Amino acid sequence: MNISVLSCEKCSAAFIPPKYICPVCRHDRLTLKPASGSGTVYSYTTIHIAPEKFADQAPYHIVLVDLDQGLRVTGRLTGGTPRIGQRVECSRVDESVYWFDPAGQ
Question: What does the angle CA 37 – CA 95 – CA 29 come to, to the nearest 5 degrees?
Fold first, then answer.
């Protein structure tokens, strides 16, 4: 699944929405561009004691993913146990939460 990233029209910096001005040069002309949503797990943590809203989902994994486009995003891993360097693909974005599947699933 492709995800959307923002690109500054002045300095070409790329970042994850939502943003209203460029965090690098403060320019306000931003363009929404597609990104592959594929990347590798940089780091992760496992939540065993979750907030009440997510208690029925515990334990679950939060992953920090280096996208192929050079950006880093935090999301949830949908299945299996994460490993550093593991390839993952974004399967959906729900309420600004990125959900990642292990690559090839």
Answer: 65
Q: Report the first-to-last Cα separation within the chain, whole angstroms.
A: 13
6, 14 contact by CB (below 8 A):
yes
pTM score of the predicted model: 0.86
Give the model confidence (pLDDT) of 62-73 as tens digits.
999 999 989 999
Q: Given the structure tokens 């040069």, which residue do they identify?
A: 25
Could you give the CA distance from residue 60 to residue 50 in angstroms, rounded to a whole number? 9
Instruction: Round to whole Å and give the CA distance between 51 and 48.
Output: 10
- Give the span between the Cα atoms of 29 and 104, in whole angstroms: 37
Report the distance separating Cα 82 and Cα 86, nearest Å: 7
